[in-house]
Amino acid sequence: MSVVIRLMRAGAKKRPFFRMVAADSRRQRDGRFLEILGHYNPLAQPYELVVHKDRVQLWLSRGAQPSDQAASLLRSLDIPMYRQSPPRRKPELSAEKVAAKKAARAAAAKTARAAKAAKEAAPKAAKQPAAKKTAKGKAAKAS
After folding, report:
1. Which residues pair with residue 19 across a beta bridge?
2. Cβ-based neighbour number of residue 8 at 10 Å
3. Quick one: pLDDT band at residue 14, thresholds 50, 70, 90?
4. Are 35 and 55 contacting, i.e. CB atoms less than 8 angstroms apart?
5. Intra-chain end-to-end CA distance of the chain, in Å
6. How are beta strands 17-24 and 3-10 bridged, if at all?
7. Are 62 and 85 contacting, i.e. CB atoms less than 8 angstroms apart?
8. In which domain, by residue range, is 29 found?
9. Domain presence at residue 70
């Protein structure tokens, strides 16, 4: 199940009010949700945004993806949107190992070329023209 953090609309006609919820991505915008994470009132001056940061960070650490608008609101509260992973380092190869790998690759290519040449030469020797066979009656008349 992929989880998203999205805004769920509530409130009356022309009077929007949004709940920030964690929901299954396959559910409708205003459908069933897993947990309410806060609310957002765009009509209040200045707008009202209440978020349970610890719960949002928990869902983000579990892999929940915020919608564009939810991510924008979370950025305004300085909540990081990504899971931190350890930096990946490429293994450092010594010059000797690099040279050994090159030599092994060259040797493998050389043996592959030799095998291919031998394979191509074998059918040519087998396909030498053989004496034509003729029908019994024609062979007797020709001699």
Report:
1. 8, 39
2. 18
3. very high
4. yes
5. 87
6. antiparallel
7. no
8. 3-76
9. yes
Q: What is the CATH number of the domain that holds 33?
A: 3.30.1320.10
CB-CB contact of 54 with 46 (8 Å): no
How far is Cα 110 from Cα 135, in angstroms, rounded to an integer?
A: 49
Amino acid identity of residue 134, one-letter, is: T
Whether residue 82 lies inside any domain: the answer is no
Q: Which amino acid is at 131?
A: A
Q: How far is CA 104 from CA 70, 93, 111, 115, 120, in A?
A: 54, 15, 11, 17, 24
Rounded to whole angstroms, the Cα distance separating 140 from 132 reads 14
- Per cent of the chain over pLDDT 70 is 81
CA pair distance 61, 87, nearest whole angstrom: 17
Q: Which two tokens stand for residue 8?
A: 């769920």
List the beta strands (DSSP E) in 3-78.
3-10, 17-24, 35-41, 48-51, 65-66
